[in-house]
Design goal:
Number of helices: 11
Strand content: under 5%
Distance between the termini: 22 Å
Order of helices and strands: HHHHHHHHHHH
Largest sheet: none
Structural class: mainly alpha
């Protein structure tokens, strides 16, 4: 999963970690509600990485050149490696990875089915916009996690290279045919709406995860901060749209 624009500080980095964010996993996991929230988070992230692997492999079939196909195959392999890291971590903390992922499979599958790209360019925009929104969300949550879990989450959010690849290809296509800009801008706006709706549905269905976001087991995350979080995600989306040469 890519996060091409993650140079800015997360809330915990900017203010200094306190509470759970300053504890290691062994200490923080003594709270059963926190443990349940982390298992949910890792399960959702793991299935997201597995779905990203499948999607990139599928998108490679739409690639116009052999070089593009090879580039997407390399990115798909990176996503699968991220999935394996999460799978191993869930096993290490005595959780069944399949059971942890299962609650999130339908929502993510529905999102990908509802936003299936019709061509190569739509696939690139989806990977760049959709994955980046998800990565922004997980980075925000990671700022309130224990040190061990935060390190893992941030490592699997490392850019696979898809961000720069998508920007280069989409901008070149729009420069060659400016008429593409309007269609792709509408597509990106649709992706933004679907991604945020899907994230809200997932969180609402999981009590431990929603409690983490609104201030129960996570340090300092109140409802006002949730609103600011989504504002930051929206702002980052606007910047990525500009990088693509599209209007937000």
């Amino acid at each position: 999963m890519e996060t091409p624009d993650h140079a800015t500080e997360t809330p915990a980095e900017a203010t200094g970690a306190t509470g759970i964010a300053a504890q290691d996993w062994a200490t923080a996991a003594a709270d059963p509600q926190y443990r349940a929230a982390v298992v949910d988070l890792l399960g959702a992230l793991a299935y997201g990485e597995l779905a990203a692997f499948e999607r990139l492999a599928e998108d490679a079939k739409l690639a116009p050149t052999l070089g593009d196909k090879a580039e997407l195959a390399k990115m798909a392999a990176a996503e699968f490696h991220h999935f394996e890291q999460l799978n191993q971590r869930l096993t290490a903390v005595d959780e069944d990875p399949t059971a942890a992922m299962e609650p999130f499979a339908k929502a993510l599958d529905d999102f990908h089915r509802q936003t299936a790209p019709s061509d190569w360019l739509e696939g690139l925009v989806k990977a760049y916009v959709g994955d980046s929104i998800a990565s922004d969300f997980y980075r925000e949550v990671a700022a309130r996690l224990d040190t061990d879990t935060r390190s893992l989450v941030l490592s699997v959010l490392d850019d696979t290279g898809h961000g720069n690849f998508a920007v280069e290809k989409v901008r070149a296509a729009i420069e060659a045919d400016p008429r593409l800009g309007g269609r792709l801008a509408l597509w990106a706006r649709r992706l933004m709406g679907e991604a945020l709706s899907q994230a809200q549905r997932v969180v609402a269905d999981r009590d431990a995860l929603s409690t983490m976001l609104v201030g129960g087991v996570a340090d300092g995350f109140d409802l006002a901060e949730v609103g600011r979080m989504f504002s930051r995600i929206t702002e980052a989306h606007t910047k990525r749209m500009a990088a693509l040469g599209l209007a937000a």
